[in-house]
Amino acid sequence: MATSSDQELIWHDGEPLRRPILLIALQGLFDVGEAATAALDWIRDLTDATALAEIDPEGFFDFTETRPTVRHVDGVRQIDWPVTEALACRTEGPRDLVIVSAIEPQHRWRTYADHVVEIARRSGCEIVATIGAMAAPVPHTRPFPVTGSAIDPRLAAGLGLGAPSYQGPTGVVGALHDRLDRAGLPTIALRVSVPHYVVSTPSPRATRSLLRRIEQITRVPLRYAELDGEVEDWQRRVDGAIATDEDHARYVEQLERRVDSTEALLPSGEDLADELEAFLRDHTDEGGSEAAD
């Protein structure tokens, strides 16, 4: 095991990965219904995931806000700290994945983002995708849309993404995108929309939508259809709650009509994967990988 010079980024030696993509989701502002972190936890459990690196939490968290937890393992008392862990996921697809599913830190966001950049570089990631979930006026009865953005205009055009347009207060994800762009690492943001009237509970439908889109882009099989049973149970519970309030039921019907008249915002699966591969080939040919070193 090797560590970086400042001792905050701890690196675990391992076998090289196959053209990996880094996926990162952080609990907090952009993880409504825990949909994004749940998607990466699904990938962790599905694949042959091993420890790749970790960021020590000491300098990044206020432990009075994000408290460590105590548990007993075989009679031994153990404290679990909010460590940011990067996992190497060897897959059955054409490439491997690196996943970071963690809690959004409170302090030193720029330094934290620099550590994530180092993880992406040292693991050989060709592209980085931040995964999130946001509250939106969408009905719970329809597939949840996944929208995205990318700073690079070629990458945005190829994947049917928009250019970043948000202005205002940001979180760690904003700092991450800034640092990754400065480092020359291609980066996209994927966000699933979650009905704003059911944001307080886990959302398996949102998680499934994210997994489907990640599979389409990466060609890594993620078996998201196995969530169908959980999605059906979740919808029955929400249906039951909505049915008790006529105003809510009418509002959901309005949302359904709006969604049913709107076309999909992103291209379909094969086109997405083909466009990503073409972009990465061009990026490497133009020296994009070397520029990031």
Features:
alpha/beta; two-stranded antiparallel sheet; 293 residues; Rossmann fold; nine-stranded mixed β-sheet; disordered N terminus; 11 strands; 38% helix
Write the layout of secondary structure elements.
Blueprint: E1 2-3, E2 9-11, E3 21-27, H1 35-46, E4 48-55, E5 69-73, E6 76-80, E7 84-90, E8 97-103, H2 109-122, E9 127-136, E10 146-150, H3 153-158, H4 172-182, E11 187-195, H5 204-218, H6 228-243, H7 246-260, H8 269-285, H9 288-291
Parallel strand pairs: 3-8, 3-9, 9-11
Antiparallel strand pairs: 1-2, 2-4, 4-7, 5-6, 7-8, 10-11
Helix pairs in contact: 1-5, 2-4, 5-8
Give the N-to-C terminal Cα separation: 22 Å
* Annotated CATH topology: Rossmann fold
Radius of gyration (CA) equals 20 Å
Shape: globular
What fraction, in percent, of the residue positions are helical?
25-40%
The SSE string, one letter per element, is EEEHEEEEEHEEHHEHHHHH
Estimate nothing, just give the exact number of structural domains. 1
| CATH homologous group name | PAC-like subunit
Poorly predicted segments: 1-5, 288-293
CATH class: Alpha Beta
Number of DSSP-assigned strands: 11
Task: Give a structural overview.
The chain has a single domain, classed as PAC-like subunit (Rossmann fold, 3-Layer(aba) Sandwich), CATH 3.40.50.10900. With 293 residues, it is α/β, with parallel strands linked by helices. The model is unreliable at 1-5 and 288-293 (pLDDT under 50). Helix 1 crosses helix 5, helix 2 (109-122) packs across helix 4 and helix 5 (204-218) packs across helix 8. The radius of gyration is 20 Å and the shape is globular. 38% of the residues lie in helices and 23% in strands. The strands form 2 sheets. A 9-stranded mixed β-sheet has the order 1-2-4-7-8-3-9-11-10, sandwiched between helices. The chain has 9 helices and 11 strands. Strand 5 and strand 6 (76-80) form a beta hairpin.
